[in-house]
Each structure stands twice: as structure tokens, then as C-alpha cells.
């Protein structure tokens, strides 16, 4: 019988003889006891299955060359990077730190793309010296700065241009990135993007190979992708540029709650592929290499956050608060984006919900609410609670607020538990240095 949690739990989720949740055959309660909470775990087989599904869809829909590249900002560490590089993925990085981890993790430079709207000289210099596949130039000033740096080094810089085509996407305002008022990219409106293409093509140090756009995150409608690709094609034709590569970004959404649609990538991949093919056939161009960058879609479902329940309290208006030992510092998404999650007890994930509670964190902020309303069975101090779909944009946005150490992270496969990230020690943080 299909369980209501099936579409949001990792694919290896099961139950042990006592009914407790297991991932890849590992019971979560002993892991929490050994490594402490908050604790994050990733199911390796879910990530590998997501990669396989995406490759199959690209092979079925796009007859040209393609690449799947991981958006490191979703979550990145040396251990995660090594596994993704070993799976044949590329990586999109946005900082010197991510560049350094990508290199150490074994990514080949021809599979690395440096993004960002305010790249430093150190970041650009590192990318040039390493010979990354593309520096994704974001502004006229950066175009000039990179050209000058390449001249000083006597190097040629492969670049893409990030384009803001003015395509509105239906998502949270903070997650929209391609409208005309966005801080990202060259705007099509007003001719800025066209001028950037002409400038790049006229440079002896810059080699323009592709165009990139990113509409935003948590998108479920494929039509904006069609419009964005059509806009890139029209811009290229206007400037006489035939792109070798097209990167329409990522952003395909995932369900966070039971009952939400499953995260099937087929509509997205089909829309992007058809738009690129149609645009090239219309103009008699060869198919470019298609670069897809799903970060959240690859890892969100694979991750679980584990917390230990603590204080219970009934407020003056009757709200039943249950506090856990994590919250805002390891997952700021509810505060930033009003992101919605569900939760359940690890020892009885299928139990009938009896009480409506507000699941809050331990941090000194009224906005530290992980889940404002969730129905749970009886919860007592010390119970282990699970928040699913915790694999993206939680740990990567984590902080040391209230000087909380960042949690440990585990990689789970059948018969194998590996540490991706050690729990921070209180005496190792920058606040400890005097």
C-alpha cells in the first residue's frame, strides 16, 4: 500500500521490525544517538537515481550533446563533491570556496562553471589559472575586468554571458532571478545583452561560447523555460552569434509536503529540449551543447533533518509549541521564504496525527519557526523528529547564530555510513580565536 510520505522520503526509506524509519537499511535512532542531533543524513541511492532519471530524459528528448551540472549552492562539501564528480556531473560554483572544494573533490576543469554577480579578482584569477569550462560573466564591468585580467596573464578566457530575458516565473519573489529588475545578468531590454555579445566577440582575450539564464527556483510550469530559450535564441540571432552551448539553468521544483505532485523532470526537460531544437531548426543552426543545472532537484529529497524534541509549552492563545534542538541556524528557509515542511516521529512515522503543534527551534528569534502548524502524534521530550526533503538550501545556508555549531552530515548506502561533514566543535569556531 502506498504511504502518504512515499513521494517526499528517500527511495530507500523503510521500517525496521519495531516500525522505526530506516534509510538504506539503517535505523535513524541509533545514528542520532551516535552522532547527536541536529543531524542531517543523505541517501546516496536517491541521488544516483535522480541523476539516472535526468540522463534518461535528456537522452530521450535531446539529440545533441548535453551535460548535467550540479549547483553547488544547494549543498556542497568535499565528500558530496567527490561523489558527484565520480557520477560524471559538472558543477556550478559561485565562490572561491566552492571552486577550491570542486578542484579538491576531483571535478575536471572542463566541467566547472563559475557563476556569481560580484566575482572577486581572486575568484576570476583562480578560474583562469585552472582553466574552467566557462566564467559566466554577469555585468559589463565584469566583462571588462575579466578581459584585462586575461590580458595580464596572457590567457584566453572561455565565457558565457548570463542573460536576464525578462521572463516572469511563478515562485517566491526572493527566488525570481530573470526579471528586468534582477541583480543578475545582462538585460535584454534596452540592448545591454546585445552590446555585451558584440563586445565579447570583438575581444582577443575572451572566447564567448554560450548563453546562460536562470529563471528562479521551485518552478513547476515548463512554459517559462520555453520563453526563456526562445529569447536567448532571438538575442543570438540579432547579434549574429551562433552559441556552442546553451544553459537554461535549473530551478525545477520538488514537493515538500505529502500530496504535492511528484517531482517528475519530464515536462521541464521536454520543454527545454523542444525549444532549443525548434530555435536551431528555424535558423539552420547546429544543436548546441545543452547544460542543465539541477541542484535542489538532485539532492532535496535525498536529505533528512533529525532533531530531538525538548520543551513543550501552551501559549496564551492556546498554541501548542514543541521546541527542537535545531531551527533557524541550520534551516533558515522558513524564515526567509516561508518554506513549508512536514515532520513525524522517527519511531512511528505512520502513526495517526493527534495534536496540532507549532514546531519551533531553540534560537532567540520569534521567527524561528520550522513548521508553524503540523499534526503529530504524542511527542515527549527526547523523541526523535524527522523533517524530510532537507537536502537542499538548508545546510548551505546554515549559520552559527547564537554560536550554534553546524550539524554533522552523513552519507548512507546499504551497509555503509560515511561522514560528509563533521559536527563543528565549540572550541574550533572563529569566535574562539582571541
Give a brief outline of the structure:
With 434 residues, this protein is an alpha/beta fold. 28% of the residues lie in helices and 24% in strands.
Structure report:
The chain has 434 residues and is α/β, with parallel strands linked by helices. The protein has 2 domains: 14-36 and 302-432, Lyase, Ornithine Decarboxylase, Chain A, domain 1 (Beta Barrel); 45-297, TIM Barrel (Alpha-Beta Barrel), CATH 3.20.20.10. Helix content is 28%, strand content 24%. The chain has 11 helices and 21 strands. Strands 4, 14, 15, 16, 17, 18, 19, 20 and 21 form a 9-stranded mixed sheet that branches. Strands 5-6-7-8-9-11-12-13 form an 8-stranded parallel barrel, surrounded by 7 helices. The radius of gyration is 23 Å and the shape is globular. The relative contact order is 0.16.
What is the topology?
Layout: E1 14-15, E2 21-23, E3 26-27, H1 28-35, E4 39-43, H2 44-61, E5 66-71, H3 78-86, E6 90-93, H4 96-105, E7 112-114, H5 121-130, E8 134-137, H6 140-153, E9 157-164, E10 186-187, H7 192-201, E11 206-212, H8 223-238, E12 245-249, H9 266-283, E13 289-292, H10 296-299, E14 303-314, E15 320-324, H11 333-337, E16 344-345, E17 355-360, E18 369-376, E19 384-388, E20 408-413, E21 416-421
Parallel strand pairs: 4-20, 5-6, 5-13, 6-7, 7-8, 8-9, 9-10, 9-11, 11-12, 12-13, 15-17
Antiparallel strand pairs: 1-2, 2-3, 4-14, 14-15, 14-19, 16-19, 17-18, 20-21
Helix pairs in contact: 2-9, 3-4, 5-6, 8-9
Amino acid at each position: 500500500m502506498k504511504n502518504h510520505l512515499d513521494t517526499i522520503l528517500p527511495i530507500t526509506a523503510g521500517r525496521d521490525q519495531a516500525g522505526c524509519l530506516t534509510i538504506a537499511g539503517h535505523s535513524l535512532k541509533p545514528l542520532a544517538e551516535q552522532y547527536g542531533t541536529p543531524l542531517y543524513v543523505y541517501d546516496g541511492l536517491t541521488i544516483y537515481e535522480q541523476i539516472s532519471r535526468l540522463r534518461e530524459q535528456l537522452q530521450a528528448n535531446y539529440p545533441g550533446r548535453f551535460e548535467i551540472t550540479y549547483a553547488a549552492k544547494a549543498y556542497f562539501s568535499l565528500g558530496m563533491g567527490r561523489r558527484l564528480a565520480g557520477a560524471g556531473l559538472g558543477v556550478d560554483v559561485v565562490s572561491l570556496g566552492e571552486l577550491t572544494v570542486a578542484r579538491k573533490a576531483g571535478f575536471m576543469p572542463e566541467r566547472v562553471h563559475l557563476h556569481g554577480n560580484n566575482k572577486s579578482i581572486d575568484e576570476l584569477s583562480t578560474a583562469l589559472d585552472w582553466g574552467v569550462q566557462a566564467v559566466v560573466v554577469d555585468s559589463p564591468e565584469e566583462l571588462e575586468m575579466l578581459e584585462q585580467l586575461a590580458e595580464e596573464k596572457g590567457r584566453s578566457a572561455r565565457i558565457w554571458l548570463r542573460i536576464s530575458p525578462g521572463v516572469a516565473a511563478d515562485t517566491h519573489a526572493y527566488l525570481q532571478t530573470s526579471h528586468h529588475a534582477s541583480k543578475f545578468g545582462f538585460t535584454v531590454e534596452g540592448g545591454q545583452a546585445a552590446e555585451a555579445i558584440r563586445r565579447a566577440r570583438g575581444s582577443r582575450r575572451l572566447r564567448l561560447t554560450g548563453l546562460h539564464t536562470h529563471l528562479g527556483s521551485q518552478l513547476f510550469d515548463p512554459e517559462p523555460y520555453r520563453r526563456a530559450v526562445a529569447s536567448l535564441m532571438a538575442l543570438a540571432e540579432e547579434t549574429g552569434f551562433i552559441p556552442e552551448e546553451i544553459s537554461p539553468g535549473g530551478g525545477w521544483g520538488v514537493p515538500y509536503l505529502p500530496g504535492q505532485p511528484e517531482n517528475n523532470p519530464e515536462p521541464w526537460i521536454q520543454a527545454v529540449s523542444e525549444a532549443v531544437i525548434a530555435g536551431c531548426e528555424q535558423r539552420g543552426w547546429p544543436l548546441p551543447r545543452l547544460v542543465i543545472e539541477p541542484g535542489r532537484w538532485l539532492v532535496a529529497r535525498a536529505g533528512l533533518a533529525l532533531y530531538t524534541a525538548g520543551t513543550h509549552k501552551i501559549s496564551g492563545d492556546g498554541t501548542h509549541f514543541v521546541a527542537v534542538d535545531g531551527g533557524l541556524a541550520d534551516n533558515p528557509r522558513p524564515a526567509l521564504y516561508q518554506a513549508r515542511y512536514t515532520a513525524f516521529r522517527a519511531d512511528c512515522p505512520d502513526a495517526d496525527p493527534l495534536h496540532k503543534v507549532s514546531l519551533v527551534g531553540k534560537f532567540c528569534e520569534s521567527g524561528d519557526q520550522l513548521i508553524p502548524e503540523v499534526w503529530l502524534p504524542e511527542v515527549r521530550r527526547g523523541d526523535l523528529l524527522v523533517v524530510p526533503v532537507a537536502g537542499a538550501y538548508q545546510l548551505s545556508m546554515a549559520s552559527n547564530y547564537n554560536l550554534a555549531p553546524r550539524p554533522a552530515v552523513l552519507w548512507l548506502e546499504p551497509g555503509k555510513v560515511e561522514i560528509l561533514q563533521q559536527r563543528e566543535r565549540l572550541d574550533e569556531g572563529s569566535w574562539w580565536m582571541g
